[in-house]
From TrEMBL:
The keyword Signal applies. It holds the Pfam family TctC. It comes from Variovorax ureilyticus. PANTHER family: BLR1237 PROTEIN, TRICARBOXYLATE-BINDING PROTEIN. Residues 1-21 form the signal peptide. Keywords: Signal. The keyword RNA-binding does not apply. Belongs to the UPF0065 (bug) family. InterPro entries: BUG (IPR005064), Bug_dom1 (IPR042100). This is Tripartite tricarboxylate transporter substrate binding protein.
Amino acid sequence: MKTARLFAAAAMLAAAATSFAQGPDAYPSKPVTIIVPFSAGGATDLSARMIATLLSKQLGQPFVVENRAGAGGMIGMNVVARAQPDGYTLGWGGNSPMSVTPHVTRNPPYDPRKAFAPVSLAAISSWTLTSRADLPAKDFGDLVKLAKSSPGKISIASSGNGSAPHLLAEMLKQSAGIDLLHVPYKGEIEGVNAQLGGQVDLMFTSTSAATPQVKAGKLKGYAVTTPKREPALPQFPTMAEIGQPDLTIEIFFGLVAPAGTPTPVLDKLAAAMKVAVADTNYRESMEKAGVTATSSTPEEFAALLARHNERWLNVIKRNNITPE
């Protein structure tokens, strides 16, 4: 019996030693996956891939981006929410799956306020209200007149039911007193392609995706959702300037981990993110895409998520938007 106890004690000590060796100080000791909950392409995916490369160089292990699109970003973020909280499966969280879509979904797979441990912001941007190039409306006033003359016939795309662009569309319909036909797509790129192909008329497109298409004359732009005019598209007024102040909402995206991830791991990742986001090439690439590179502490990111969740919950309640 005494021998058995000694063996058991030795086994416990060995396990503790192994655990210590594989603890936060040794992190990461194997490849890390970053789940991007949207389709490949666009600034969100680009930023994740650039940051993954920079984190790999700093931390000495591969950071591999994996796209898991669908359900307004919830499919990918649910993978993160259910992953082991050890820092080896991370998420590239953004507005829709982190503060919007779960609140307008019946039986959502996770609570965005509880399922994740924020690490750091990576960028902040906006949406631009865009249309197909040949839509006969030169400005927002014309657009409203056109929609009112053809109730329910002007279509507006989104990156999925319950996504932030979908809610923005619903808010626009109510605030401008117009009836638009909502057409959900699997992701933003699919919606933009539908605009370019003339299958849909309008979309709240991320400014990063809208900028090259507008500058090339392939899409029209009407207004941006930032508090101030966007440097990338300074010719377009803000939503407040066109009389739609409730549509003043910024896009954010950044790195999150599953809830319960050890604080030392989060702090190590946050420190690495601060260096990565400060990288000159990353910042210049984001600026060209109409995005502002922005890092944060885990606490600052958590506070931003809390504000966005509260804001969207108020929007959903005020506009009588029910879960689907």
